[in-house]
Specification:
alpha+beta, Nucleotidyltransferase, domain 5, DHBP synthase, 2 domains, 8-stranded mixed beta sheet, 5-stranded mixed beta sheet, 17 strands, 19% strand, globular
Length: 405
Amino acid sequence: MLTADGFGDGANGSMWVGQKGKPLREIKRTTKCNIRRTYRYITLLLGMKPNEHEYKVMSLAPYANRKYSQKSYDVFSSAMQVDNIDFTCNKEVKDYFWYFQSKLRTHRFDSIAYGLQKVTEELLAKWIQNTVNETKINNVVFSGGVSLNVKANKGIWELDNVQSYYVPPGAGDESLSIGAAVRYLIENSNKIYDYMPQIIPYLGNSFNDENIDKILSETKDLSVKKVSPNDIAKLLVKEKVIARFSGRMEFGPRALGNRSILADPRSRDVVANINDMIKMRDFWMPFCPSILEERMDDYIYNPKNINGKYMTIAFDSTELGKKEIPATLHPSDFTARPQIVKPEINEGYYRIIKEFEKITGVGCLLNTSFNLHGEPIVASPEDALDTLRRSGLKHVVLNNFLVSK
């Protein structure tokens, strides 16, 4: 297991070995993995919000012209290198912000994004490749804020010496709560527990039909009716976009069907519709596909059967994927950051996609978080209705109730 983040516990990178029936054993800790620090300052230098918009820099990178981006790449590659299972930093870099500002002053914005992303991918791939060679362990888990870089994760799982690769649904600091709880249980029971198969992202609050019915009974400006998964699928085919608030809220940064805006993935026109209605995302930012487990190989290349259930890892799309689900792919490089949907993990959401497949032949829906731009994800039925009223959305599903303007 490897971690990389901004800084914490006196380090910004660590390596651990796990064996069945034994606690994790730390083998390396470093203060020289400055990838996250570099990304934070470049986000700021590009006029975006540091500690929030790093993902925008990652998504911007594929648009750059490779020829004109070489100078930016050289600046980043000279600042930090991998040294076996550690990192070395350029001693010339005393202050990262001022160093990069001076070196990149005349560079194009997209070239800067490309250079940073390319070097990030190369550093992480080499670091993890060296760690696998050192430990002789090719089953890799990656966590920490840097592990949210889905394109770097793609380069890691594609390494020849990596057999399996896992990035948890809540890979940032939020997962410390789970780690602390598991450690407490282990240390106070004298047993080693295999918890990971039990930890799924649907750990938040939920509201039963009685709660929602009471709230809707006081709603006079919206129409309400009960619906089935088939009704929802038909509405998606007709109206293209709806929001869904159902079941337990997701843990971590990704909306995984229960607090999501859903859409027909077959035409890129729906992307502009969603942005006009509610999201107002930058033009280069892709949405994500929720793909039925049995249709995974139709839409993405995943020869190692990497765990792609949580939108934490990117994959190349297939030709059929480019044809049938273009609205869910990155517009420039056609990669996907999928949620592979299994019935045993989220049966309600799976049934909606399955019904959509029966109508259209496409076993996938576009999925993005249910929130207004700049606001937190909806956390209650009242939040969902308020967002419906204040946005261009026309419909929201609350459990089994369809609420429409």
